[in-house]
Amino acid sequence: MTRELMAPLMFGGLVVFMLIGYPVAFSLAAVGLFFGFWGIELGFFQVELLQALPERVFGIISNDLLLAIPFFTFMGAILERCGLAEDMLDSMGQLFGPVRGGLAYAVIIVGAILGAITGTVAASVIAMGLISLPIMMRYGYDMRLSTGVIAASGTITQLIPPSLVLVVLADQLGRSVGDMYAGAIGPSLVQILLFCLYILALSIIKPAAMPALPPEARTMKGWPLIRKCLWGMVPSVVLIFLVLGTILMGLATPTEGGAMGAVGAIVLAVLHHKEFSRRGKIAAWIALAALTVIAVPGFFVWQDAWMPAPLVNAATAFLGFAKSPLFALFYTALTILMLEAAFIPELRGLIREACGSTMRITAMVLFILVGSTVFGLVFRGVDGDLWIEHLLTSLPGGVTGFLIFVNIFVFFLAFFLDYFEIAFIIIPLLAPVATKLGIDLIWFGVLLGANMQTSFMHPPFGFALFYLRGVAPKEVKSSDIYWGAIPWVVLQLILVAILIFFPGLVTSFVNNGPTGTPSTIELQMDTPQNNTPDADGKTEQDREAADLEKAIREGK
Questions:
Q1: Is 527 helix (H, G, I), strand (E, B) or coil?
Q2: Tens digit of pLDDT for each residue in 443-463?
Q3: Are 202 and 289 part of one and the same domain?
Q4: Are 446 and 183 in contact (CB under 8 A)?
Q5: Domain count, the chain
Q6: How far apart are CA 495 and CA 473, in angstroms?
């Protein structure tokens, strides 16, 4: 037994545990501790290195960036249950009904909007499966097309900001969440375009597979239909703009943006609830308007590179003068909403269910992150990072070979792991190698995020397929669901290839942050110091652990 064998054996042991099906969080911690104690026994690992473990766990718990996860999860849980998806799907289906394949276009567009405001695949797939699939079946849509477009549109959630996976990737790569969101804008739009082009091509090649709705099925037209579409879409788009825009512009940290999104979700739930009083609905609109008035001038400050200087100066002065009163107006309107909502049992139950769902998901994420920290500490202690670096940098083809290998590797890992597990286990191993090869980590993170979409779409653990199977009528065969997903997985892989050959789709949206006088209007975003990597991709915690290990080896 030699020290060089410890890292590959440790990695292989983790793979065995995961293939058995043992919970990932406990698999990571168990493998890490086992090899740590075994390495101590063999003299390959210094017991003093474990002293860094409590500090690392405390660093996870005290990481403000991770607070964005429960906020975005709560936002998605509220919007999943408030009836917003039903309204949008009904109105968009009527709008696109006269077009061949119109229901499929409606599912793609609504899936993109829901993905942006909920951040969860389950919410999008379940809502669209319950509402759209029976309608598609009734009007003669091909079964595999119907199930495939519903599942695929739900997975757009993972790439469209503000996505949870992008928050996790930013944290693991030590990069700004705002930059990761900005970088994902172009790829998410290209993904929607690819889906729509596929439907267009199929409508020409196989028109019988997606007939237009008959006239008797289109019960609304003209201004009533347009008004219903606007009623469903405008508040949602405003919420997306507020949450994403304030983060990108530097008006809010990701955690503050997530909190704003959680509040906005309650506002949308109020607006779609019939029992709410006129005063409550007025307060909801005031809350949205106050945040919008803050966000629009912030956009001018953010884009001061090409905005006229007088306009930027006016926006800066306005924000410095009016931001605090506008936020006070927002919180006053929010207080009115909460007094109002307390007397409606349905809204109380909605918030209670959302809190329970948020707690379960947040606890799962933190346990996985703590387990991955235990594994990562021991893995680095036995020179696992050097083994991975040597293995990947010696691949033929240089950067291109590395990217091809990593994307194939992540694609096959997605058969067995979900995106949280891949992000916490694999990304910390790949980031230092990518940095050494000169790869932009924002582009690398968005590229892997696009790849990890497929984890929801193929067996054996394609959760989007499981969600759809759970809500689909009994006459829908499981084979139709699985076969229907294949073309959409191919489209997702095409996006990965496009991003490799056209990195400007990511990088052109990044580094457009505020360059004026952010301190005047308090636009500075704080970045946790221990998450900032150096030129070698090492964070402060990594450097401290390396210094401790070096001191131990030298006998100091």
A1: coil
A2: 999 998 888 888 778 766 677
A3: no
A4: yes
A5: 2
A6: 32
